[in-house]
């Protein structure tokens, strides 16, 4: 066996072992979509706002959604306030992203809640940090907070 064929076979075996170990497939994040939804566009001051984040599988195959990050921060919901300050929501209700098998045309649902303290336009966006530093960002959902009317 010549050297080139040996090294080629060796690299294929190593790559197969790595992908089997981490249970990942090629470009699986390209088949995922992150979406943010809110029930209304206008809320009153001091009213709880519920943002729902979906991670959807757009492909025709079941995917293993994996996140090998050490800090387990694979999903982030960011709020941009009317004064341009940004904050990230903690205590996201959902399930652990480490070992989820996501079937075709299915989605994972996360719910985040917050109470606004300012009047004006808020933008809510989500980021999913996937394998090998791939980041999927949702389109921002825009809501408006108005006075309480009291």
Note down, in words, how this protein is organized:
The chain has 150 residues and is mainly beta. It has a single domain (29-146), classed as Immunoglobulin-like, CATH 2.60.40.3880. It contains 1 helix and 11 strands, in the order αβββββββββββ. The protein has one helix at residues 3-22; strands spanning 32-38, 42-44, 49-57, 63-65, 75-80, 86-88, 100-102, 107-114, 120-129, 135-137, 141-146. The longest helix is centred in the N-terminal third of the chain and has 20 residues, at 3-22. The mean pLDDT is 77.
Topology:
Layout: H1 3-22, E1 32-38, E2 42-44, E3 49-57, E4 63-65, E5 75-80, E6 86-88, E7 100-102, E8 107-114, E9 120-129, E10 135-137, E11 141-146
Parallel strand pairs: 2-11
Antiparallel strand pairs: 1-3, 3-8, 4-7, 5-6, 5-9, 9-10, 9-11
Low-confidence stretches: none
Q: What's the CATH architecture name? A: Sandwich
- The structural domain count equals 1
The whole-number mean of residue pLDDT values reads 77
Distance between the termini: 84 Å
Query: Structural class of the secondary elements?
Result: mainly beta
Note the run of SSEs as H and E: HEEEEEEEEEEE
Give the quaternary arrangement of the chains: single chain
Query: Rg, please?
Result: 20 Å
- How many E-type strands? 11
Q: Can you give the helix content as a percent range?
A: 10-25%
What would the CATH topology be?
Immunoglobulin-like
Please write the CATH class name. Mainly Beta
DSSP helix count? Answer: 1
């Amino acid at each position: 066996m010549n050297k080139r064929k040996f090294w080629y076979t060796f690299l294929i075996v190593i790559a197969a072992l790595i992908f089997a170990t981490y249970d990942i497939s090629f470009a699986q994040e390209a088949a995922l979509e992150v979406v943010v939804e809110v029930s209304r566009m206008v809320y009153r001051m001091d009213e709880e706002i519920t943002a729902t984040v979906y991670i959807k599988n757009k492909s025709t195959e079941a995917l293993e959604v994996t996140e090998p990050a050490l800090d387990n921060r694979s999903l982030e919901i960011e709020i941009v306030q009317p004064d341009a300050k940004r904050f990230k929501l903690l205590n996201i209700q959902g399930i652990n992203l480490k070992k989820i098998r996501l079937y075709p045309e299915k989605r994972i649902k996360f719910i985040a809640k917050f109470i606004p303290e300012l009047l004006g336009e808020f933008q809510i966006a989500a980021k999913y940090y996937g394998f090998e530093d791939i980041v999927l960002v949702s389109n921002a959902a825009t809501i408006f907070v108005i006075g309480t009317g009291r």
